[in-house]
Amino acid sequence: MSYPEARYAGEAGESSGVFRPASAEPDLTMGASGTRVHYLGTGASTDGQFGLYRWDMGGKPTGPAPHFHRTISESFFVLSGTVRLFDGERTVDATTGDFLHVPQGGIHSFSNTSGEPASMLILFTPGAPREAYFEELAEISAGGRTLSDAEWTELYLRHDQYMV
User: Fold this and answer.
1) Tens of pLDDT along the chain (164 residues)?
2) Of the four listed, 142, 146, 149, 162, which is most buried by Cβ atoms within 10 Å?
């Protein structure tokens, strides 16, 4: 394996880093579970390289059913608490420091069923616009909308989410 093609051609480097303090308010709160999502690095802000999100879950059960993505990989790193991770074959109650990487096509899911708060980082590569998906889910939940099976299928297809 070698390094990818250079994306920066300058000689001296540049001041282009973006700092986000830990005290920043969440960018999104998801439904009844109260999950707070921090957009640490979006596909737009990282020039499509990756999307990195901090997912702070309250004690109420939350998380998607098993699914896969065709265009993006997804990785999970548990910061605190217990997060139930499914890698397509087994379910593990992951705790602080545990990590799961799922390549494109890999079936996976996550949930917080512990009854206690939990926090994790979610990394998508390359940087797809996942925040649009998260925001649409939050809007559906906040509005109390009920989607038909066809509407769920259309929503998932628009966001590279294939339920199993």
Assistant:
1) 999 999 999 999 999 999 999 999 999 999 878 899 999 999 999 999 999 999 999 988 889 999 999 999 999 999 999 999 999 999 999 999 999 999 999 999 999 999 999 999 999 999 999 999 999 999 998 988 999 999 999 999 999 999 99
2) 162
Handedness of CA 59, 30, 66, 88 (dihedral sign): negative
SS (H, E, C) the chain: CCCCCCCCCCCCCCCCCCCCCCCCCCCEEECCCCEEEEEEECCCCCCCCCEEEEEEECCCCECCCCEECCCCEEEEEEEECEEEEECCCCEEEEECCCEEEECCCCCEEEEECCCCCEEEEEEEECCCCHHHHHHHHHHHHHCCCCCCHHHHHHHHHHCCCEEC
Domains in the chain (CATH in brackets) are 28-163 (2.60.120.10)
